[in-house]
Amino acid sequence: MGILNDGLSVFGGMVSAAKTVRDGIRKLSGEVDQEMRNSLNIQIGDLIDAMQEMRERYTSLLDRLREVEAENRKLRDFEIEKEDYILEQLAPDAFAYVDKAHRGAKSGAPYLCCHCFERKVKSVLQFEDHAAHTDKLKCHACGSVVHKAADRGQTVMIGRVNNRWSMDDF
Fold first, then answer.
1. Average pLDDT per run of 10 along the chain, which is 170 residues long?
2. Distance between CA 69 and CA 62 in Å, rounded?
3. CA 15 to chain CA centroid, nearest Å
4. How far is CA 86 from CA 4, 144, 149, in A?
5. What does the buried/exposed string (b/e) look like for 5-37 if buried means 16 or more CB atoms within 10 Å of the residue's CB?
6. Which helix (H) or strand (E) holds 97?
7. CA 85, CA 112: separation in Å to the nearest integer?
8. What is the DSSP code string of 32-80?
9. What is the pLDDT of residue 8?
């Protein structure tokens, strides 16, 4: 509301300047001396400056209002879209938001970062690395890391077996 108050104070100054000019013109009767002419010119110049400042502040206020309306529209759209997502546990102490339509599917919709989602930003968790039973997902917007349980079935370990007998083994 600071911009609005600034605009109102400038407008008040502009009205005062206009009243002063009006009063100066009313006082004119007959011959106008140079001093009176200079005074009126200064007052008219001040009025023009005040009007210009008022127009600039009004334009600034309208620009800010448009920005706030755009931000409000974006937040409203996010709140509507937020209803399509649900918080899902990926592993113990690991959560992410997922589209309700793709919930439980092995592949499909991406996981969204909880931290960013709560700040009203949709940031996809991206695959970073994998281990035997977990996938490491990372949010590149805020840097958080989530470990997702990954069921890859039974793990088969392959290694070399020495089938030779040796007297050294005894």
1. 63 73 67 75 83 86 92 92 89 87 69 91 89 85 86 55 57
2. 10
3. 39
4. 41, 19, 18
5. eebeebbebbeebbebbeeeeeeeeeeeeeeee
6. strand 94-99
7. 9
8. --HHHHHHHHHHHHHHHHHHHHHHHHHHHHHHHHHHHHHHHHHHHHHHH
9. 66
Q: Which amino acid is at 158?
A: I
Token pair, residue 40, equals 């009126």
CA-to-CA distance for 132 and 59, rounded, in angstroms?
61
CA distance 145 to 113: 9
Helix (H, G, I), strand (E, B) or coil at 95: strand
> Residue 137 gets which letter from DSSP?
E
Identify the pLDDT of residue 115: 92
On whether the CB atoms of residues 47 and 21 are closer than 8 A, the answer is yes
- The rounded distance, in Å, linking the Cα atoms of 58 and 54 is 6
